[in-house]
Specification:
The chain is built from three helices and three strands; from the N terminus they run αββααβ. By secondary structure, it is an alpha+beta fold. The protein has one domain: GMP Synthetase, Chain A, domain 3 (2-Layer Sandwich), CATH 3.30.300.130. A three-stranded mixed beta sheet has the order 1-2-3. A hairpin with a 4-residue loop joins strand 1 and strand 2. Helix 1 packs across helix 3. It is globular. GO terms for molecular function: iron ion binding; iron-sulfur cluster binding.
Length: 78
């Protein structure tokens, strides 16, 4: 699959999860995707950036949503 297709899927996944993050005053920004390693990098913003639940939000919310949309992604880092 072309890298742009994967990037589009990641964007779709992030758009699905943004309303949940916005409820708590947060957001997420896509930073990069490495095709060779399958690692996507995102940046938590707003209240999510300093929240004690940020790691859980990343793994259980953001990473899960991205992997469902784009199985090419093996890991999501913040």
């Amino acid at each position: 699959m072309a890298k742009q297709d994967v990037l589009n899927k990641i964007d779709q996944a992030l758009n699905k999860i943004r309303p949940m993050l916005a409820q708590d005053g947060g957001d997420v920004e896509f930073v990069s995707f490495d095709e060779k390693t399958g690692v996507a990098e995102v940046k938590l913003q707003g209240h999510c950036a300093g929240c004690p639940m940020a790691q859980m939000t990343l793994q259980q919310g953001i990473e899960r949503a991205i992997k469902e949309e784009a199985p090419e992604v093996r890991e999501v880092r913040s």
